[in-house]
Amino acid sequence: MAEQGSVGIVEKKEFTFAQTPNPMSLDSGETLGPITIAYETYGELNTDRSNAILITHAISGDAHVAGFHHEDDRKPGWWDDMVGPGKAFDTDLYYVICSNIIGGCQGTTGPSSIDPNTGKPYGLDFPIITIADMVHAQRELIRGLDIEKLLCIAGGSMGGMQVLEWITGYPDLMLSAMIIASTHLSGAQQIAFDAVGRNAIQADPRFNNGQYHDGEPPSNGLAIARMLAHITYLSEEGMHGKFGRDLQSTDKFQYEFDSEFAVESYLEYQGSQFVNRFDANTYMYASKAMDYFDISARYGSLDAAMSEVKCNVLVLSYSSDWLYPPAHSQQIVDALARHHKNVAYCNIESSYGHDGFLLEVGRMAKIVTGFLGHAHQPELERARTLASLPEKQTESPNHIIQGDERRIDYELILDQIDADSRVLDIGCGRGDLLCHLIAEKNVQGVGLELDEAQIIHAIENGISVIQANIDDGLSALPDQCFDYITFSRTLQLVKNPHEVLLEMLRVGKKVIVTFPNFGYWRARSIIFFTGKSPKTTNLPFDWYESPNRHYFSIHDFRQLCNKLGIIIEKEIPLNSSGEVHFLPNARAEDAICILTSNASSLKGISQG
């Protein structure tokens, strides 16, 4: 039953390759063929075949990512909220492809397929597969569709593992990639959960060493495996909010072993529904493929793997995901950043746990829409972004200046930065300064920002922005990897300004700092005449709600730089009328300082 914004009725398609005598070689050393891949497509491929997007699915997914299979179908594809006309993966603009993995059970060759050598289902005679094997098969499909280069490859969870294999193994075959709620390797915790799930399946009396296709399948074992795995997709906060200690159908304990709690009934339902659509052997093979996954092992290290990447990369994680915690995504982002790759990262605040990438659609859709738009039509989107930047902008509460005054420091910063340089803008907000620098100076710009809403805006503006807290340092970045670091009206907010300054000068050759001058005469006069904390246009907060941790003047800043061995190469005191040359410590509201440092002054700075 097609709905508004839906791709409507879709059909499953098939592609066959690796025919005798040319089977596909697998990582295990075995071969497999012939191989049939089930896939679905949505939207239209444009004339130059440049708008194709490949979506890779998670362990329990399949090729049916959106739409319906028939008029009476009441359940749409597994990512229907994201794929369709006007949605994030807009099928009015893009040609979206999703295929079932090899080893799958929804039309692609897998353990339930017929072995041509025996005429019976493969069962456990099917060869062990890896994530890389899945990707090599997808590569054959894309080749068969006569698509030379993909606009984007996107996937969550196990799908994100496939994306990592794509961008390292076939780095020239895509313009962009999205790694969502995933990891660069399966750790001991996931391997342990997977092992228990496989043991539950094998312990089912009906498993019959994988040859159960002539009888009843091992439904009990598969249901338990699914129940266990599903717990890892949730979060403690989400489970408490949804279930708590609620009883399912009574208001008091029954003192028996039947399911009484709502969460028990929920998990049983998930297990029973899963066995109706999934094959136990496929679960065994796919979970084993995930256990083997370690992109760093293939290349020697994560950094070596990420050095292969040539496309723009978007990484998304979810705050309450404990299966693949945000720290896993951060490791991927850090490795990409160390190799000067264009990467954007946002850790989306969510209580949905690992399932956030399937359920937390609103903010994710905004990010994906913006990222894809700039990958698809970068020049057009850049022009639109620049046209949308207001002449008079309103600052976020994290800035000292608020209201309709223009950021005159931006124009002065632009003048200080050389063309074609590498710039890191810390506290970049929605990326306005970087947008101008990229357009006017052709810089390679990266933003750091903590606020999620600002990060979403920055990605929509086409900025490579990484979610990070400067108070945690820049230890992931190597020495002198940026020509300039800009740090605008944020120094007074951080916990340890002296440590932040030294860390920025380790990473950047020059640091451009702007800060409000608390020695400004209006602030002094308010304190002198009223005895109260100053509140001015430049200091708009009451003392009890101010985000500022530190209150310092231009003189204070000079003294700190002298103590740290930091050279103030240029100082530009400012007020609303422009540069201040006479009595700047009293007459300037703000200051811009360009800092450099002798290498000797950075010795002993912690790299960790």
Overall description:
This protein is an alpha/beta fold and 608 residues long. The protein folds into 3 domains: 1-148, Alpha/Beta hydrolase fold, catalytic domain (Rossmann fold); 186-292, Orthogonal Bundle (Rna Polymerase Sigma Factor, Chain: A), CATH 1.10.1740.110; 388-602, Rossmann fold, CATH 3.40.50. The protein is 34% helix and 18% strand. The protein has 20 helices and 20 strands. The protein has helices at residues 131-144, 158-169, 188-203, 219-233, 236-242, 262-275, 280-292, 295-299, 302-306, 326-338, 356-359, 361-376, 378-388, 408-416, 432-441, 452-460, 497-507, 521-530, 554-564, 584-587, and strands at residues 13-17, 24-25, 31-32, 35-42, 52-56, 83-84, 89-90, 95-99, 150-156, 174-180, 312-318, 343-348, 422-426, 444-449, 464-467, 482-488, 508-516, 566-575, 578-579, 590-597. Strand 16 (482-488), helix 17 (497-507) and strand 17 (508-516) form a beta-alpha-beta unit. The longest helix has 16 residues, at 188-203. The model is unreliable at 392-406 and 600-608 (pLDDT under 50).
Give the gist of this structure.
The protein is of the alpha/beta class and 608 residues long.
List keywords for this structure.
Rossmann fold, Rna Polymerase Sigma Factor, Chain: A, eight-stranded mixed sheet, 18% strand, disordered C terminus
Multimeric state of these chains? single chain
Number of strands: 20
CA-atom Rg in angstroms: 28 Å
What is the overall pLDDT average?
A: 92
Note the overall shape: elongated
Could you say which structural class the secondary elements and strand pairing correspond to? alpha/beta
The CATH homologous superfamily of the largest domain: Vaccinia Virus protein VP39
CATH topology of the largest domain: Rossmann fold
Biggest sheet: strands, sense, closure? Answer: 8 strands, mixed
Work out the strand percent.
Answer: 15-25%
* Structural domain count: 3
Just name the CATH architecture of the largest domain: 3-Layer(aba) Sandwich
Output the strand order for the largest sheet: 1-4-8-5-9-10-11-12
List the uncertain runs: 392-406, 600-608
CATH class of the largest domain: Alpha Beta
What gap, in angstroms, lies between the N and C termini?
56 Å
Number of helices: 20
Question: What share of residues is helical?
Answer: 25-40%
